[in-house]
Amino acid sequence: MTTRVEKKPSLTKRMIWTIVGVLLLIAVIVGIKVLLVMRMIHSMPKPGPTTVSTVKATEQSWQPSLSAVGTLRAANGADLAMDVAGLVTEVHLKSGEDVKQGQLLLQLRDGDDVAQLQQLQANAQLAKITFDRARKQLDAQAISKADFDSASADYTARQAAVEQQKVVVAKKQLRAPFAGRAGIITASPGDYLNAGTPVVTLQQLDSLYVDFNVPQGELGRLKVGQPVNLTLDAYAGRSFSGTLSAINPKVDAGTRNVQVEATVPNKDKTLSPGMFAKVSVDVGSERRQLTLPQAAIVYNPYGDTVYVVQPAKGKDDQGKPNAPTVKQAFVTTGDTRGDQVAILKGISAGTEVVTSGQIKLKNDAPITVDNSVQPANSASPTPQEH
Question: What domains appear along the chain, each with residue ranges and CATH number?
């Protein structure tokens, strides 16, 4: 009787079939997951248009100007001090008072010096009497020429001694070297002052100088007599007019800047020396310039751009009009003026550009325009207190 032997698949084939089966199972699972994810993506609502604000580029009258930061300086200003040490006997000044040139401000004790001056004046008077008598005697040939010369020299020497003592007495008095406004004085009668110790500051405020620096490349645009405008944080909303009065003939070798001086009238004495000021010098003639708010410019290392609004086209699947979109455009910018910047090329007048919300945009992105709030777009902005 013949025995039937069944052939079993080898171990290698069984492993191959097992691996194939596992791969098929994984493929089925992955396929199901992909279908679920695709279905979820299609079922998600599409992102809505980005809300932005826009403005149209317009041409405006543009006065070219050069901006800088300056410091106010008095036409005449000094910290007054005594030439000699001494005890204060009188103070003829109140803090913040306007004084005239030559006005006595402070007196040191000078009794001894005045007494010595009186003695010298008496000696000089006696020498003058002797000199006049000698001159008459010389005319009558009663004395020699040598005696007359001796009397003349004695009189001259005693006059010089008087003048020298007057200087000593004057050093005990502090007088205003020019008209101006005094600062705060703390000296009182009875105080002892050392020589050279500042007593009070005196500033002439009728007109002030403002000193500022400009790059050497701007020298060709500056000349004496040009109008200058000043704005100060202390007086928001107010500007002060002046005139460019001097240009330093030497350029600083370290900074390549040149110092410039302007004169500013100060009849009401509003301005004070040492104040910080923003200076604007009108250079060149007024011209028309295409402008945009500086907030509209996206500054990049590879070039400055703006997002230009494209009109809406067509309708969506539900029959509603599509939202407008944006296109990025490169622009060349020029001078700035307050919140505005000049556009030299890249767009034309009337072009509508995005002024806020650019960070969320890309080419062909849909937008919704909301101009209820606009970024600053003033040629002469002023600080606002809230």
Answer: 50-64+287-369 (2.40.420.20), 66-74+206-282 (2.40.30.170), 110-171 (1.10.287.470)
